[in-house]
TrEMBL record:
<keyword id="KW-0560">Oxidoreductase</keyword>
<dbReference type="Pfam" id="PF13561">
    <property type="entry name" value="adh_short_C2"/>
</dbReference>
<protein>
    <submittedName>
        <fullName>3-oxoacyl-[acyl-carrier-protein] reductase FabG1</fullName>
        <ecNumber>1.1.1.100</ecNumber>
    </submittedName>
</protein>
<feature type="domain" description="Ketoreductase">
    <location>
        <begin position="5"/>
        <end position="178"/>
    </location>
</feature>
<dbReference type="InterPro" id="IPR002347">
    <property type="entry name" value="SDR_fam"/>
</dbReference>
<dbReference type="InterPro" id="IPR036291">
    <property type="entry name" value="NAD(P)-bd_dom_sf"/>
</dbReference>
<dbReference type="InterPro" id="IPR057326">
    <property type="entry name" value="KR_dom"/>
</dbReference>
<dbReference type="InterPro" id="IPR050259">
    <property type="entry name" value="SDR"/>
</dbReference>
<dbReference type="GO" id="GO:0004316">
    <property type="term" value="F:3-oxoacyl-[acyl-carrier-protein] reductase (NADPH) activity"/>
</dbReference>
<comment type="similarity">
    <text>Belongs to the short-chain dehydrogenases/reductases (SDR) family.</text>
</comment>
Amino acid sequence: MSTDRVVLVTGGNRGIGRAIAERFVREGYRVAVTARSGEGPEGTLTVRADVTDGAAVDAAFTEVEQKLGPVEIVVANAGITKDTLLLRMSEDDFDSVVSTNLGGSFRVVKRASKGMLKARFGRVILISSVVGLYGSAGQINYAASKSALVGFARSLTRELGARGITANVVAPGFIETDMTAELPEDTQKQYKASIPAGRFASADEVAGVVTWLASDDAAYISGAVIPVDGGLGMGH
């Protein structure tokens, strides 16, 4: 089913965000991506924005609205890691990760909700991680920011659910990206052994779940956490 609804994917220049943007383009949506640097995939409008800066987010939305129309589907995907054990983690290691991963989602969704309320239609899709509910040593900042998205989506559902707006969380596990490709072979084997599916996901497998959540088929799903992790988290 093709649609010309307007989608904005944050951090859409690489990795999972890029795959999500590509999938929306293939399915006929009008797609914009935010990027701090680099360009989104072919067929997308790239706007510059750092999600930690409210004014930059506002300007990016204004540009998308002028060129494509009001944003009806927002995918909050931009995220960073600064992994280290708790006792070595600085205040900045913690604050910068939370400000990007959680604060960024807040800024982007708040700005998007204005148009969604007017249209009485909206899809908010927050990209979390299996680590958010499963936990991971050395990732207290990252896991905290990612699990917080669950409370965010559920509170948003209670606020805006009656206005035709849904808010859901997608929690990917290990995905084949540049980052996992760089892991030593032994480490990759070890990780795969802990995943019931026995393999990493392709970024497109995550993108397929995201585009489905944006579709009319998922209109009655809100406040859900959908793991795309090959059984690693088992509903944690």
